[in-house]
Amino acid sequence: MAPSRFFREACFIGGEWLPAGADFIKVDNPATGRTVGRVPKLGRNEAHTAIDAASGAFPAWRAATADERGAYCHAFHDALMDNQAALAELLTIEMGKPLAEAKAEIAYGAAFFKWFAEEARRVYGDIIPAPSANKRIIVTKEPVGVVGAITPWNFPNAMIARKAAAALASGCAIVCKPASQTPFSALAFGVIAEEIGLPKGVLNIITGSAEAIADAFCQHPALRKITFTGSTETGKLLAAKAMAGMKRVSMELGGNAPFIVFDDADLDAAIEGAIASKFRNAGQTCVCANRIYVQSGVYESFAEKMSDRMRALKVGDGLDAGVDQGPLIDEAALRKVEAHIEDATQNGAQLVTGGRRHDKGGTFFEPTLLRDVTSAMAIASEETFGPVAPLFRFDTEQEAIAMANDTEYGLAAYFYTENLARAWRVMEALEYGMVAVNEGIISTPAAPFGGVKQSGFGREGSKYGLDDYLNIKYGLIGGLGK
Ligand code: ADP
């Protein structure tokens, strides 16, 4: 790859760079199979060092005013945007998504720094009427302390930005452990922290053994909160360990998003929404449409239009111009997609488009459309995390709601209708943390992102996002006279 100043084969602890030594993790470009570079494989001891560094930086950082911290967050935003092209290229090279999507991700990540820089100025307290005249009850909010963040590979920049921006703005120090598949976009945050002069130790990035680092997060007494984005399976393991250390926890876990198209929908808008939701990041997002329910009256025309639209999607290396869909992250992802397609077709689903590994080889897969999919198939209950659009048929609104809610997950849901009463009814009936009506893309820093049921708890972004990084303190002043 073209050397960029953001490319560091070293971890960032207490403002110092710790280069990869004998124990390292090799990172490959999923589009070419070529090695991008290597990063340190750190363990428990180095994680403790990073937590200590954060802990050392915390008192001065929390004592800074919201405006002072906000200024650093604004500087982070500006640095991300000023270097959007270089950061996006690094992201595409290690993760595979098309360059245009990588650029959008950098802008999305940067927007969280701007959002929280402004939101931090509004961390208000309360004065509560006291039960007796000689007392006053005061409520203030304080940063929780050192935060440990564990993030996934599908949004190598934004998943860190969402957490780091809220932590920094609220006065916390943070140690981030990115996914081993995509550490370079994470380490780039260290370069930016250095360039904007962020006090040493406020932001630390460590790569290495997930379990050892997670153990350190759960056990170190100075670490007060763990924020995790990843699979439900890993989230549950981590949450259990975190409880043993009584750490505050936020969990942004898996989804199984329904995408419902009613007979009264604007069909062209629904197709565009379905394509955007399903094929962004090759279907590797926790909010992407996993089950597409189409009402009988528009089922045939939806299937036809969707298939036409999908055939036009260009698959290739994300760095190449005009590419809509990059490779999948690895061989395991490819196998899951194949298993879901095989299970569906063996049980009666029809393959309309795609269905196979792409001629380009590697981990490229054809955009795939399945029809006549039913609830009995694996694809209905598991997150595919790939470019497969399965079409289910339904007749009534109640049936659609029941099928959509028939999952252990509750992250994002989408539906299309032009009927206002139905829009309200269905939005209220869906058991999800986020519901989009007549839109296929839901995330924005201004809105609270998060799930219910097995999709986790806690909210990122919005005016609610800071709460996860703040403790409430109750102060009582008594003896104020008779
Ligand atoms: P994915 O399927 O998206 O890779 P994971 O939940 O396995 O989802 O990974 C998300 C993050 O969790 C990554 O940073 C990964 O390294 C980390 N991770 C994996 N296993 C564990 C574990 N046992 N404890 C804590 N974190 C883990």
Write the layout of secondary structure elements.
Layout: E1 10-13, E2 16-19, E3 24-28, E4 35-40, H1 44-63, H2 66-82, H3 84-95, H4 99-119, E5 126-128, E6 136-143, E7 146-150, H5 158-170, E8 173-177, H6 183-195, E9 203-205, H7 210-219, E10 223-229, H8 232-244, E11 248-252, E12 257-261, H9 267-279, E13 289-295, H10 296-311, H11 331-346, E14 350-353, E15 368-373, H12 378-381, E16 388-394, H13 397-405, E17 409-410, E18 412-416, H14 420-429, E19 434-437, E20 452-453, E21 456-457, E22 470-477
Parallel strand pairs: 7-8, 7-10, 8-9, 10-11, 12-13, 12-18, 13-16, 15-16, 18-19
Antiparallel strand pairs: 1-2, 3-4, 5-6, 6-22, 11-21, 14-15, 17-20
This protein binds adenosine-5'-diphosphate.
Care to describe what's here?
This protein has helices at 44-63, 66-82, 84-95, 99-119, 158-170, 183-195, 210-219, 232-244, 267-279, 296-311, 331-346, 378-381, 397-405, 420-429, and strands at 10-13, 16-19, 24-28, 35-40, 126-128, 136-143, 146-150, 173-177, 203-205, 223-229, 248-252, 257-261, 289-295, 350-353, 368-373, 388-394, 409-410, 412-416, 434-437, 452-453, 456-457, 470-477. With 482 residues, it is α/β, with parallel strands linked by helices. Strands 14-15-16-13-12-18-19 form a 7-stranded mixed sheet, with helices on both faces. Helix 2 packs antiparallel against helix 4 (99-119) and helix 2 (66-82) packs antiparallel against helix 5 (158-170). The radius of gyration is 23 Å and the shape is globular. The termini are far apart. Residues 150-152, 177, 179-180, 210-211, 214, 230-231, 234, 237-238 line the site of adenosine-5'-diphosphate.
